[in-house]
Amino acid sequence: MDISVFLWVATVTCWPSTSALPVQERRERRGIPPVIPKPLRDPIENTGVKRVLQEGDIYVDRRRNAVSVFEQTWFTRTIPFGIDPSFDSHDVTEIQLAMQEIMSGSNFCVKFTPRTTEEDFLYVTKLDGCWSAVGRRGGNQTVSVGDGCNKKGIIMHELMHALGFWHEHNRPDRDNYINILWNNIILEHKQDFDLTNKSQTLDSPYDYLSIMHYKANTFSRDPTTLDTITPKSSLVDKQSLGQREYLSDNDKVRIRRLYQCNDTTCPYPNIMNGFADGTNLSVGSRIKFSCKSGYMLIGNPDRICMKNGVWSGAEPKCLYRPVVLHYCNFDSMDLCSWTQQIVDKNQIKWTWWSKETPTDDTGPYVDHTRQGAPGYYLYMESSDPARTGNYALLTSLAFPVSSGLCMSFYYFMYGRKVGTLEVFMKQGPYPETSIWSISGNQTAEWNIAFVTLKIPYIYNFQILFKATRADSPYGDIAIDDVLIGRCQDLMDLYNPQGSLQTILTKPADGTINYKFGSDSFTFYKLQS
Known about the structure:
The protein folds into 3 domains: 3-15 and 40-165, 3-Layer(aba) Sandwich (Collagenase (Catalytic Domain)), CATH 3.40.390.10; 169-258, Collagenase (Catalytic Domain), CATH 3.40.390; 323-527, Jelly Rolls, CATH 2.60.120. By secondary structure, it is an alpha+beta fold. The chain has helices at residues 3-12, 27-30, 89-105, 152-163, 249-258, 487-494; strands at 53-54, 58-59, 78-83, 111-114, 121-125, 130-132, 140-145, 178-180, 229-231, 274-277, 286-291, 295-298, 302-304, 317-320, 324-328, 347-348, 351-353, 377-380, 391-395, 405-413, 420-427, 433-439, 447-452, 461-468, 477-486, 501-502, 511-515, 523-527. It comes from Potamilus streckersoni.
């Protein structure tokens, strides 16, 4: 790629002002971090920063950052970006050169492209210090290139964080290669030297020359005389640690491995009783789906070929329209006429959300339907101001009574202490009755529930979802893709090959667990 062409394209696409950036409702929860306090002894280290930064230059907004989490990489391998127009021409050139070297190091598998309308993008701006979040975070994602940070190597370091890379010295196997001199570390920065299980080694050796390595005296109480890191091998010069000049050979290999650059296409996505509009099957391409007349599309109508050679989102399927009583993926703000009314002081509202929930170590990364923008879901926020026993209640419109009805939906219940998700049925003057419930941590994935609707009365019926908070702020509960229809058709929809297999054990909660033979959904639960 001609560097002069790249520089010109990126320069002319800088926004006229930061105030012109699109403002989204959820940005308040995830947006630009507060200004970092001064003074800063070293712009690479950001010494003296508290709460905002982890490991010196990683912005942590109480989220999960992990290169091992697929949803937090840029799964089309394309990273849209904007550059703050307050940078002078020298700074802009250094930013663009940093992007160019990363692209070149990946053999142009990973690409930085000027943002047009993309919802997820990097915005390189000039705040205090040098820092970035780790991986794709959703929406307007800040990379700070503050005073003293405007050098290509430092910028590459921060962009590597944004791609999904942690620091080299925090690798789980680092104690085989370096010594951490704990007594020499500034007290408030000792946590920055902790081992992490959040990073992958990507089957690559420990790399003293990685652009992601700390210097030998990073966060030292006396940088001129005291080291904080020393190599175990006498063959390694400690002065080589923490270089900010170039990507090492291992850095380049890791980019290509993390972004699975050997995978170049996705298989052609057939859809029974429907159509796939598009012939480009390469990574980053998009295909739209539709159904024949008389059929309804269930699942993701717009899929992207991801970097692992798999199409994004839930596999779309066409269901015969007369057998579908109701379907909602919550992508529309009207919530398909589901409503929530506050009836007592313990009640809180479901939140309509896209991407990750704001609290660390709980909640989904993405919606179930689309696995990212512009997909939405509903969740109950368990952190402040929510309290123990608070609950969120969601009520459907009234449905006509019919025999042989079932309901499926997806739920996400992950965290240190998760409360209860319960489903009720309400008919006419009769009180609502519980027809399904589950409590506690159900692993960090979307699970599917399948509920037989036993309708005892002649009145139209309503479905209610109730999520109750446990005594912990780490217990978000989310739902997505609610479908009501004939039982056999729903079974066929999720089990087209007839590969559903019963697990012999029956839990005490009265549900029967089933497992898909080859489906990625893993489990669903059927009310007996």
